[in-house]
């Protein structure tokens, strides 16, 4: 067999192994090792794997992963999410479907200090959904808003997916974070317009009964007090990062320390909870780094087989062209999102797609933003829909059906596709800040 044939078979076997339930990291390592053995020999395969383990994890940058994960977990238990929602609820209570809009903006701000979509889905399903239900919103709309707006956690920096992409594409984490700001705000605006459009054209889909419930009275002083921890963390992390005072790893450390101080001051962190968060941080970090190691080995195996080079020739010298490749790439990611999780999609597809995108002359920062948005659509699409299942689990409501949440998320999926189209047509929406 030729190296190309071995690489093509390796990709097919990898997909089959994942679909039958093998952990993706184990599947990628096994397939890559076997393919290199067939392409070269056992000695080269073992040496390549050990070299990859050293090269892929020795970077100082990888310390950013546990730090931002720990910061997100600490923020989740400190009550900052509820304060964020309270602030926007007070500011937007007179707007039509104001609680839905408040949920979007609160998720956007919460995303800027956590970077994990699942954390947003968990927090706001317990805070925003009961409040919206109390004010007469339908359950489908309330859960759909939370599911849709939770994806902002992986786009607005800091973002775990942005970090993973930056590592795999060998791009600056700081520039990727900057590139996520414009599209993140654009997506939040698209969600807001979607809510207002639904409330204006299909009020029965938004409101179940008239809003007769009383709002929690929160004065200007309370708004300011509740805003202080949120703004302090944003200034500490994003201000330090974009002001040039901190690199991404140092910003993660500062953010984790700031979140720890807030949790301690609010007495929401006892010894047992802190230990649980540290263990959870370790588990998430190890799984992410192991997957990065496996993806790096998979990428080098593909380079050895010549598969990316052949695909680049097919797309770029034929009649498809760069934008034809981009369309096929987006459709593939959205389809995979129905089956597997976000990071797994990136680890499988990017080693194949990045060389083609680079050969096509596409901006890899812009390409990364497109990738993250397309991947995040998978959080809302059946049957996988991780955000949907997270909300179902967090709500603990036996009458709430998963299908109801999926249907509530449909308008927000359409809003994400529209936003994706705008970013594809106008790349500057994603690159203007990163180029400053």
User: Could you say which overall geometry the principal axes of the C-alpha atoms support?
Assistant: globular
Write the H/E string, N to C. Answer: HHHHHHHHHHHHHHHHHHHHH
Helix content: over 70%
The number of distinct structural domains comes to 1
Q: What is the overall pLDDT average?
A: 82
Strand content: under 5%
> What is the gyration radius calculated from CA atoms?
22 Å
Number of strands: 0
Oligomer: single chain
Distance between the termini: 49 Å
| Low-confidence blocks of residues | none
Q: What's the story with the biggest beta sheet?
A: none
Characterization of the model:
By secondary structure, the protein is mostly helical. The chain has one domain. 78% of the residues lie in helices and 0% in strands. It has helices spanning 3-19, 24-39, 42-57, 64-77, 80-92, 98-114, 117-134, 139-150, 160-169, 173-201, 203-206, 220-242, 248-265, 271-305, 307-317, 321-337, 342-359, 364-377, 386-395, 402-425, 428-431. Helix 5 packs across helix 12 (220-242). The longest helix has 35 residues, at 271-305. It is globular, with a radius of gyration of 22 Å. The model has no long low-confidence stretch (mean pLDDT 82). It comes from Sagittula salina. This is TRAP transporter large permease protein. It is found in: Cell inner membrane. GO terms for molecular function: transmembrane transporter activity. Pfam families: DctM (PF06808).
Task: Identify the notable features of this structure and list them briefly.
transmembrane; mainly alpha; 0% strand; TRAP_DctM; 21 helices; globular; 78% helix; 436 residues
């Amino acid at each position: 067999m030729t190296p190309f044939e071995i690489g093509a078979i390796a990709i097919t076997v990898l997909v089959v192994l994942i679909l039958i339930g093998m952990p993706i990291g184990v599947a990628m390592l096994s397939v890559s090792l076997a393919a290199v053995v067939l392409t070269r020999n056992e000695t080269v395969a073992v040496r390549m794997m050990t070299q990859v383990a050293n090269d892929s994890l020795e970077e100082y940058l990888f310390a950013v992963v546990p730090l931002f994960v720990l910061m997100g977990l600490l923020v989740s238990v400190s009550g900052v999410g509820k304060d964020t929602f309270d602030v926007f609820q007070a500011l937007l209570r007179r707007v039509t479907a104001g609680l839905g809009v408040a949920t979007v903006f609160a998720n956007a701000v919460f995303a800027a200090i956590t970077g994990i979509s699942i954390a947003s889905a968990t927090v706001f399903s317990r805070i925003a959904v009961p409040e919206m239900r109390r004010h007469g919103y339908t359950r489908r709309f309330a859960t759909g808003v939370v599911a849709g707006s939770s994806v902002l956690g992986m786009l607005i920096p800091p973002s775990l997916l942005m970090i993973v992409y930056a590592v795999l594409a060998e791009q600056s984490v700081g520039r990727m974070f900057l590139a996520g700001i414009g599209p993140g705000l654009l997506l939040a605006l698209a969600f807001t317009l979607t809510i207002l459009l639904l409330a204006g054209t299909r009020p029965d889909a938004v409101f179940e009964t008239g809003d007769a419930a009383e709002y929690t009275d929160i004065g200007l002083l309370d708004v300011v007090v509740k805003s202080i921890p949120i703004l302090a963390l944003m200034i500490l992390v994003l201000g330090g990062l974009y002001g040039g005072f901190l690199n991404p790893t140092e910003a993660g450390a500062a953010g984790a320390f700031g979140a720890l101080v807030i949790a301690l001051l609010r007495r929401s962190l006892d010894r047992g909870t802190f230990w649980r968060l540290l263990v959870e941080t370790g588990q998430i970090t190890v799984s992410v780094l192991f997957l990065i190691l496996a993806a790096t080995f998979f990428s080098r195996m593909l380079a050895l087989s010549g598969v990316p080079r052949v695909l680049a020739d097919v797309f770029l010298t034929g009649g498809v062209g760069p934008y034809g490749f981009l369309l096929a790439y987006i459709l593939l990611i959205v389809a995979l999102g129905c089956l597997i999780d976000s990071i797994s999609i990136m680890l499988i597809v990017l080693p194949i797609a990045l060389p083609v995108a680079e050969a096509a002359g596409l901006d890899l920062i812009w390409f990364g933003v497109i990738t993250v948005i397309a991947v995040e659509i998978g959080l809302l699409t059946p049957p996988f829909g991780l955000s949907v299942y997270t909300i179902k689990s967090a709500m603990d409501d036996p009458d709430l059906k998963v299908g109801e949440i999926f249907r509530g998320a449909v308008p927000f999926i359409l809003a994400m596709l529209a936003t994706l189209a705008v970013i594809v047509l106008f790349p500057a929406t994603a690159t203007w800040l990163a180029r400053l």
